[in-house]
């Protein structure tokens, strides 16, 4: 088991390294000049060249890669071309916002998916079970930006209950909750619908298992059998899918942050691309890559804890 | 320092010296009167003069273009100086709401007869927010530092040769050649006065002499100013200003509807203005901008080098339809390269009327058929909408146009302005008086006319407004005749204000957005 864990950590490190190469060299061939982007339409070629030298973007790619990657892993991500201030704190601030948003989204997704998925499975032969399935199908087909716009139209513009955008840090308490409610809902709705379908399938499968029949034979009612024996077994695929959905949620957050004017990684990334703020783009993309890999690693390591059968298999 | 009509008239018509003396006298008396009446009585609508302004109020204003940082000396784009100039930073002179040059840190000035020496008498008792005193040394330092600027066209003031300190409160700026535009540029970002101790952290902090002190800038999210209680002129009408940055027009529109912001400036939610106009509690204010949306035609292209072909394209384009698609019809149709707020503006919209038949005849007489052109379109909504209408218009006279979308600014600037690899391209030139670039054949417009360059030189050598305007008018006429581009429209500057907010500037003059007159009633 320890060996298995070590192997997974090794794969993680290698993937991070390869990802850093891909990210850096792809950005290196991206058309558009960072210096020109900072100086605007009116700057002369001499002014642009001078800034190119000052930013160091006229040097060979391998040199810049080594400088960036050593800096990245020693905590010095460099200075943003656009804001002229250190990249590190800016990325961390944005990361914190996005993580809260994504966690909120996962929370919403799980709160929707578990009851909806279980009910749809348990009552799959009845009209209301079909209705729950239908609801989740509908949820999957709504893009999250549209969900965001609809939520704003209803809860902010029409009803005036919640702000239409903006962000408050968690220390703001109630104000934080008011600001995160709609974006987390928009983000979580779609993923909740997807997760609900997996939950339904997993529960249905578990209900057909022999041990469930045994539990019923011992005299447990269907509900009690499901709660005591079924759900734990259905949880493994659900947790795996949630971790895959985590990557989707981060991507979804990019869009949701724009709709709700939230200063997270997504909006920072989009602006950095427009500004050709290469050092900022690299650092953000690397952070997202590491985050997603880290979550996958954690889930890989956690699965044997949830399901003892997997310990033997590995 | 808010000027009156008398002051403007004196300044426009009198001899420079007499005018300046009068201006300084008025300026001093206005200063002495103190800040009892911060409200400009001429403000349209007149609501501001009613009682109930709350000088302790804060205002939150939604903005569009996002400042990358705070240093407009090395960062292009209008977003940075629009926010800071006239609010935090001040220059020797400023543009008023009508675009006229007015005194600011210089209470008066004289221009020598040969147009090569500008002598400024400075305001006394002015300090920077960090306590540094403003005097002639500051002016010398700031203007000599233009050499270190890399953005916002420092070459526009390249004529400045030296800055001589006459005494603590008088400086003479000597030009290497006459340049009547110099005062105009001094009223913009290039004229901002900096304290020598603050220039190392211009990107992250702002220390000026203006009516507001800079408080904070959360990158791309919000900027905050607080009233400068030690301001040398009339105090600002609100205690604090928060500029909130939006990248999405609908998000900003939702914010003003739900009370997230009190006003929006530079709004581009064109499709929503009609519904805002129907709402009682929100006022839609349509002013004009400095922008010229121009379709440029590359003279290196064999067909486009011919006058008749360019005129044919100009006549084939239905500008009304273009503007309807781009801005829902808000804005002014243009016939030439100048905008209505330019002192030399002439309406040329009748010169090349929309007339596909005449356009077809012109093409025929130039013996051009089967013309196919590549149209490089920046990925901006207005440009994409305009280009589609133009493509359709040109197909009616048998010109086949292929649209090629390019990311703006990164790719578009590189391909069109640097490599000049285009047949047709379109952009909104937002810089004030951008038609000056027709003087440079190497600019991407590729306009090369000896006659035009002579007229530019003649205008620069002017020593009064009339002389300057008449040269520029003649020049505009020449440009329209040669039609190196198709000037489509002047985009509107649209502001939205909730009830109780007044004093927001109506027009975008390409300088700072002066927020010192803004008031909020209770």
TrEMBL record, chain A:
Domain ABC transmembrane type-1: 95-303
Pfam short name (any one): BPD_transp_1
Localisation: Cell membrane
Family that this chain belongs to: Belongs to the binding-protein-dependent transport system permease family.
GO cellular component term, pick one: plasma membrane
High-level lineage: Bacteria, Bacillati, Actinomycetota, Actinomycetes, Micrococcales
Name of the featured protein: ABC transporter permease
Organism listed in the record: Nesterenkonia natronophila
Gene Ontology terms, MF aspect: dipeptide transmembrane transporter activity
Bilayer-crossing regions: 9-30, 99-122, 142-164, 176-198, 246-266, 278-299
Membrane topology of the entry: Multi-pass membrane protein
From TrEMBL, chain B:
Annotated ranges, domain Solute-binding protein family: 100-428
Pfam families xref list: SBP_bac_5 (PF00496)
One MF term in the entry's GO annotations: peptide transmembrane transporter activity
Source species, domain of life: Bacteria
UniProt KW keywords: Signal
One example of a Gene Ontology biological process annotation: peptide transport
Secretion signal span: 1-32
InterPro entries: Peptide/Ni-bd, SBP_5, SBP_5_dom
GO cellular component: ATP-binding cassette (ABC) transporter complex; periplasmic space
Protein name per Swiss-Prot or TrEMBL: ABC transporter substrate-binding protein
Species: Nesterenkonia natronophila
């Amino acid at each position: 088991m320890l060996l298995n864990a070590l192997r997974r950590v090794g794969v993680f490190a290698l993937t991070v390294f390869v990802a850093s190469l891909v990210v850096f060299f792809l950005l290196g061939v991206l058309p558009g000049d960072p210096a020109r982007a900072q100086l605007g339409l009116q700057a002369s070629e001499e002014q642009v060249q001078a800034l190119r030298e000052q930013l160091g973007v006229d040097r060979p790619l391998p040199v810049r890669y080594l400088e960036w990657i050593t800096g990245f892993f020693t905590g010095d991500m460099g200075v943003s071309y656009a804001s002229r201030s250190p990249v590190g704190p800016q990325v961390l601030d944005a990361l914190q916002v996005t993580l809260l948003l994504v966690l909120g989204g996962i929370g919403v997704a799980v709160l929707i998916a578990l009851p909806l998925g279980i009910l749809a499975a348990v009552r799959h032969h009845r009209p209301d079970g079909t209705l729950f399935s239908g609801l989740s199908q509908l949820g999957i087909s709504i893009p999250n930006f549209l969900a965001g716009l609809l939520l704003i139209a209803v809860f902010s513009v029409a009803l005036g209950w919640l702000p239409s955008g903006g962000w408050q840090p968690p220390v703001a308490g109630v104000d934080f909750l008011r600001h995160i409610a709609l974006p987390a809902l928009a983000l979580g709705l779609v993923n909740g619908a997807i997760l609900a379908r997996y939950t339904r399938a997993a529960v249905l499968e578990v209900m057909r298992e022999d041990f469930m029949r045994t539990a019923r034979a011992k005299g447990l009612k269907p509900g009690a059998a499901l709660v005591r024996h079924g759900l734990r077994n259905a949880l493994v695929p659900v947790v795996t899918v949630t971790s895959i959905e985590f990557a989707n949620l981060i991507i979804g957050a990019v869009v949701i942050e724009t709709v709700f004017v939230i200063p997270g990684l997504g909006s920072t990334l989009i602006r950095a691309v427009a500004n050709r703020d290469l050092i900022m783009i690299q650092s953000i993309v690397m952070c997202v890559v590491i985050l997603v890999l880290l979550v996958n690693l954690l889930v890989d390591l956690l699965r044997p804890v949830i399901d003892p059968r997997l310990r033997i298999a590995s | 320092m808010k000027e009156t009509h008398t002051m403007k008239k004196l300044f426009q018509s009198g001899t420079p010296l007499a005018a300046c003396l009068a201006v300084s006298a008025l300026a001093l008396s206005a200063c002495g009167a103190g800040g009892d009446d911060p409200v400009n009585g001429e403000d349209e609508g007149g609501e501001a003069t009613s009682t109930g302004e709350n000088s302790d109020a804060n205002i939150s204003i939604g903005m569009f273009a996002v400042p990358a940082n705070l240093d407009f000396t090395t960062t292009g784009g209008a977003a940075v100086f629009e926010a800071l100039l006239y609010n935090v930073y001040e220059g020797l002179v400023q543009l008023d709401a009508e675009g006229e040059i007015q005194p600011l840190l210089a209470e008066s000035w004289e221009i020598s007869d040969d147009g090569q020496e500008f002598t400024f008498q400075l305001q006394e008792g002015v300090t920077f927010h960090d306590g540094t005193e403003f005097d002639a040394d500051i002016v010398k330092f700031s203007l000599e530092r233009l050499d270190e600027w890399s953005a916002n066209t420092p070459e526009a003031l390249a004529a400045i040769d030296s800055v001589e300190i006459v005494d603590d409160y008088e400086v003479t700026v000597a030009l290497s050649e006459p340049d009547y535009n110099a005062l105009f540029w001094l009223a913009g970002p290039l004229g901002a006065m900096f304290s020598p101790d603050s220039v190392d952290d211009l990107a992250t902090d702002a220390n000026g002499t203006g009516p507001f002190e800079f408080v904070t800038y959360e990158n791309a999210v919000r900027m905050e100013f607080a009233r400068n209680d030690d301001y040398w002129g009339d105090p600002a009408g609100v205690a604090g200003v928060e500029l909130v940055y939006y990248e999405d027009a609908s998000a900003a529109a939702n914010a003003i509807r739900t009370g997230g912001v009190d006003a929006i400036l530079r709004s581009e939610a064109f499709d929503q203005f009609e519904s805002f106009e129907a709402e009682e509690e929100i006022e839609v204010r349509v002013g004009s901008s400095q922008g010229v949306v121009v379709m440029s035609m590359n003279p290196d292209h064999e067909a486009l080098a011919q006058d008749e072909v360019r005129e044919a394209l100009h006549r084939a384009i239905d500008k009304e339809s273009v503007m309807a698609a781009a801005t829902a019809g808000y804005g002014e149709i243009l016939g030439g390269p100048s905008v209505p707020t330019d002192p030399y503006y002439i309406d040329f919209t009748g010169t090349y009327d929309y007339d596909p038949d005449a356009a077809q005849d012109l093409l025929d007489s130039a013996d051009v058929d089967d013309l196919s052109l590549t149209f490089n379109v920046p990925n901006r909504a207005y440009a994409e909408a305009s280009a589609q209408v133009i493509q359709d218009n040109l197909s009616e006279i048998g010109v086949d146009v292929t649209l090629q979308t390019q990311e703006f600014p990164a790719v578009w600037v590189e391909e069109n302005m640097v490599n000049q690899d285009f047949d047709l391209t379109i952009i909104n030139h937002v810089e004030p008086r951008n038609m000056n670039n027709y003087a440079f054949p190497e600019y991407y417009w590729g306009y090369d006319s000896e006659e035009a360059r002579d007229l530019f030189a003649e205008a620069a050598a002017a020593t009064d407004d009339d002389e300057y305007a008449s040269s520029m008018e003649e020049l505009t006429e020449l440009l329209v005749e040669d039609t190196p581009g198709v000037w489509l429209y002047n985009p509107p500057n649209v502001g939205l204000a909730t009830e109780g907010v007044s004093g927001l500037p109506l027009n975008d003059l390409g300088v700072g957005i002066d927020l010192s007159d803004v008031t909020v009633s209770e």
